[in-house]
Structures are given as structure tokens and as C-alpha cells.
Automatic annotation (TrEMBL):
Taxon lineage: Bacteria, Pseudomonadati, Planctomycetota, Planctomycetia, Pirellulales
Name of this chain's protein: Uncharacterized protein
InterPro entries associated with the record: UPF0270 (IPR010648), YehU-like_sf (IPR036685)
Database matches in SUPFAM superfamilies: YehU-like
Pfam name, any one: UPF0270
Protein family according to the UniProt entry: Belongs to the UPF0270 family.
Length: 50
């Protein structure tokens, strides 16, 4: 999770608060973790509407 929230390098706010924000969004099912097998990478993306 830490790698994701520090990836772009442009947001200089508290890293721990950004991690907590992502964890909260995951818990609320507002975002999901998308794994790309071709590139072996993960991204946090908005959840698609059902």
C-alpha cells in the first residue's frame, strides 16, 4: 500500500493519512485493487458500477 500512495511523488501530505484514506475507500468498496498479470502490477481503481 505504501508504494501506491507514494507512487506519483507530487502529494506531500502525510503518507499515513493517505494510506488510511485508501484503506477506508477499500472497506467502503468505493475502490478495488486491480492486478495486471501482463505487467505484474497492481493499481487501486474506482469500483465499476454494478
Amino acid at each position: 500500500m505504501l508504494e501506491f500512495v507514494t507512487r506519483d511523488g507530487t502529494d506531500h501530505s502525510n503518507v499515513e493519512s493517505r494510506v488510511q484514506q485508501i484503506l477506508a475507500q477499500l472497506a467502503q468498496q468505493r475502490v478495488v485493487i486491480d492486478f495486471d498479470a501482463a505487467t505484474q502490477t497492481c493499481n487501486v481503481v474506482p469500483k465499476s458500477p454494478d
